[in-house]
Amino acid sequence: MLAGVLVAGCVSQQPSGVQPTVQTTATVQPTKALSTLTLNGAGATFPYPLISKWSSEYSKINPNIQINYQSVGSGAGIQQITANTVNFGASDAPLSEQVYKNLTGILQIPETIGAVVVAYNLPGIEKGVNLSGDIIADIFLGKITKWNDPRIVALNPGIQFPAKDIIVAHRSDGSGTSFVFTDYLSTVSPDWKSKVGKGTSVNWPAGLGGKGNEGVAGIINQNTYAIGYVELIYARLQNNISYAYIKNKAGNFIEPTLETTANAVAGAVTTLPSGDASWSSVSIVNTQGDNSYPISSFTYLLVYKDQTDLTKGKALAEFLWWAVHDGQSYSSGLQYVPLPKEVVSLNEKTIKLMNYKGQPFIQG
After folding, report:
1. What is d(CA 75, CA 63) in angstroms, rounded to the nearest whole number?
2. CA-CA distance, 233 to 258, in Å (whole number)?
């Protein structure tokens, strides 16, 4: 048996039981492990699967950087970035004009594009039930209460709907997904706009509340004859829930897919504001196009332009740069639409605004 001694990076092999000879008087210092830097984020459940994927992939190429993201809803994300308890927030809704004015120096960075689907639990009836905006609004207003309502039946010839009560599911927390959904309903239904309106939190006229996309998906899964709204990935990949085809502005019933969601944003990319301006009027619901899915939205990362910590600020800027470039390659597999080149270019300009004491983290 041989015993080994590590001296100045070399191993001197000696017979077992024999005192090893010291080859040098040099002292070897143990390699100092790189300290781990954690970037904390919180907010929307809508992009959580994508941000989670980014976190795992980014740590592979930067092992000393950890991205810790809490999926707590857009409302909570805005609260936490406002209170400076996280390094970045996330929201499916752009900041309201009032919130934007109160958050001096905030940047809004579109990170991806997604679809909100109207999901349902109807035994024997798979995806593809046709619904229009006015009918969806009336279901969530509590005016249509049965699945075999004549207005639903008229849109779906050949489908036998049960004479069962509709169980409505909605978000209970402040939610960007709710903002997108109620923005759509306010656009297509004057009755909804006047009685409920749009927002991350609204007074729901009917239904059961669930926390997060996960909570609403759970209510739909657990309750036969339920209907609710969730982000596409929560219906398609994570829960295998059926979802409706929605009548768009052109009068066509459109399945939510990557292609139809991308079509919704195509006409908006040239009119977007700069990253340090207000985005409160940005909306891509019910847009023009024969094949545009009508309940589509950007989702945003929220960061401060002027960072107070040099090390963390630099790490955050570099992560965001990666996310809007290489990170987009993970979008399609998770049912998100990669950012168009025009939006990537806009984000580049925004991220270059991030600085520490006037010195930008990313030059050029």
Report:
1. 31
2. 11
Distance CA(91)–CA(279), nearest Å, equals 12
CATH class of 116-266: alpha beta
In contact, 94 and 108? CB cutoff 8 Å: yes
By the 10 Å C-beta count (0-12 exposed, 13-18 middle, 19+ buried), 73 is classed as buried
Write the pLDDT tens digit of every residue in 130-179.
999 999 999 999 999 999 999 999 999 999 999 999 999 999 998 989 99
pTM: 0.84
With b for 16 or more beta-carbon neighbours within 10 A and e for fewer, the 248-273 pattern comes to bbeeebbbbbbebbbbbbeebbeebe
Task: State whether CATH 3.40.190.10 applies to domain 39-114+271-360.
Answer: yes
- Of 72, 85, 81, the C-alpha closest to 100 is 81
